[in-house]
Amino acid sequence: MGVVRKKSTPLTVVRYILVLVVVAWAIFLIYWGVVTSLKPPAETFTITGISIPFLQFQPTLENWRTELSTRESRFTLANSVVVAVLATLVAMLLGVPAGYALARFQFRRMKNRDLTVWFLSQRVLPPVVVVIPFFLLMRTLKLLDTQLALILLNATFTLPFAVVISRQAFQELPAELEEAAAVDGCSDFTAFFRIAFPLAAPTLVAVAAICVAFTWNEFLFALALTSLKAKTFPVYLAGAEDTRGVQFWFMATRAILALGPPTVLALLIQRYIVRGLTFGAVKG
Amino acid sequence: MSLKNRSIKYAFILPGIFWVLAFTIFPLFYSFSLSFFRVRLGKPARFVGLDNFLRLFGDYKLGNSLRITLIYVAITVSIQVILGILIALLFNQEMKGKSLFRALLILPIFCTPVAVGYLGLTVFYEEGGPINSILMSLFDWKIPWLSQPFWAWVAVLLLDIWQWTPFCFLVVLAGLQSLPDEVYDAAYLDSASEWEIFRKITFPMIQPVVIIVLLLRLIESFKIFDVVYSLTGGGPGTATEVYSLYTYRTGLKFFDFGYASALGYLLLAMVMVIVNLFFRRVRQVYE
To answer: Is the pLDDT of residue A284 over 80?
Structure first.
């Protein structure tokens, strides 16, 4: 915790007001989206100022009902869920054992540290550099507009999170438990599955949540590789403007629908966010 | 900690390594070879040597998007980091509702960037959007947010700053809270001023954290695509056509795959230069 300092009263009040201003600024966009989605379409442009619900207008769930009963928004939401969950599963299946190996075994030809940085370096790559080769590759493989293509790619992009953070989680566990298990005749695999894996589970769940959120938010590749069947929700959202003009009530409803799942996940794993997003470089 | 040296380790790590080779290294090579060809949809590829790279030099649209992107990265990253540090200092004390406030500040980081762009569209709406309607009632003045190049650019910057300042804040706050209290006690006894304490004690101690934040934001900022795509579509004209958007359009709208690959490689080279400046520090972290 920070130091508790003696402060004269006025300064503390000023600080508190500043804090509230910062918080208001941070949630304004989301607030505005929610409020706009609750406005009756006819009143979208007539309600002025910051549009406080109930006070300035009677909120309605009409936009949400319409949106959720639209076939296209339902199946794009479903696509997003399927891609996010399966990509995360693949990333975890590949990444967690690799993280474990980097934490527990010694690699000689390329040192553990360098292997870790190698896995990490993929995050440096601007996605637009590889979008064309992937597009051509998926076209050759007849995988354009399939969920499988998006799953493969997103698993790749989220793999560094899985490797680097699970490595750190395993490093923080005492190795003695697994050593004792080995003395009792437990194989390395059993030691990993039965002992290390459950102990690291909370961190691993948080990593998985981060992978789901990143895959959910991914836009560039979903835009390039899908057109109809495998379209994810963000791509559907991006098409909304062209198809329906400036219908802000739908736009806001969809935007909130898009950012809802990842933000809720983020709140559930708050404790791990700093560590997760800095790849373990800063401990939260 | 002693590290075991058994061959089973390969069973754990090789799947991951092969995956990265297949899905990162291979496309990079593929893209590299593409950049020496003239590849268009429906036509056979033709080897053109360095033509695509030479074309980079005379491409005024590239010059435009490169300039926009570099200025954007410089401005947005410095504002985010500085604001992040200031807000972290503001939050680094006991206060009522701190954990709630902190939780609310996490929200922007995880918002779908495309959705942020569209919410921006509703907020920056020129006739009756919340910002302009408040400006109108106070000053009888409104900002041509999306119709004028300069303001469109400001709108993109504002959205990006909105989304990523909380990230800088969160990480710097974590750094601040890991500092031992003792160092401050002595400083307070010496009755040093707030600014002096920050400059001589706090900042040097959180500097490693600030550098990590800076590096991560630099890398991510070069990738900007989603917000621009949804808020301005690169417009008006090409006023906000950032590098990724220009490359994307060259490749996947005009299907000039070879030239787009060359564009991609130029971007990669720039990012690599930046990362290399930080490389030793990054390796230290994973010792």
So the answer is: no
Once rounded to an integer, what is the mean pLDDT over residues B45-61? 85
According to DSSP H, which parts of chain A are helical? 9-38, 62-69, 71-104, 112-121, 127-140, 147-172, 176-183, 188-190, 197-217, 220-225, 233-244, 248-268, 273-277
Match 């930046």 to its residue by tokens.
B274
pLDDT band at A250; cut points 50, 70, 90:
confident
Q: Is B128–A51 a contact, with Cβ atoms under 8 angstroms apart?
A: no
Residue A218, in any domain of the structure:
yes
Same domain, A73 and A39: no
pTM summary value: 0.91
Which residue is associated with the tokens 């507009």?
A: A145
ipTM: 0.90
pLDDT tops 90 at residue A23: yes
Query: Does A211 have pLDDT greater than 80?
Result: yes
Domain of A41? 9-60
* Residue contact A254–B271, C-beta within 8 A: no
Residues 46-105 on A with a CB inside 8 Å of B are 46, 48-51, 93-95, 97-98, 100-102, 104-105
Instruction: Mark which residues 117-146 of B lie under 8 Å from A by CB.
Output: 118-123, 125, 127-128, 130, 133-134, 137
> Would you place residue B274 in the very low, low, confident or very high pLDDT band (cuts 50, 70, 90)?
confident
Residues A141 and A254 in one domain: yes
Contact of A155 with chain B, judged by CB distance below 8 Å, is answered with: yes
Answer yes or no: is A199 within a domain. yes
Which amino acid is located at B33 in the chain?
S
Kindly state whether B109 is in contact with chain A, defined as any CB-CB distance less than 8 angstroms.
yes
Which residue among B2, B106, B127 places its CB closest to the CB of A270?
A: B106
Domain count, chain A: 2
- Using alpha carbons, select from B268, B225, B231 the residue that is nearest to residue B249: B225
CB A39 within 8 A of CB A51: yes
Q: Please indicate if any CB of chain A lies within 8 Å of the CB of B158.
A: no
> Are A197 and A111 found together in one domain?
yes
pLDDT tens track for A169-186: 999 988 888 888 878 877
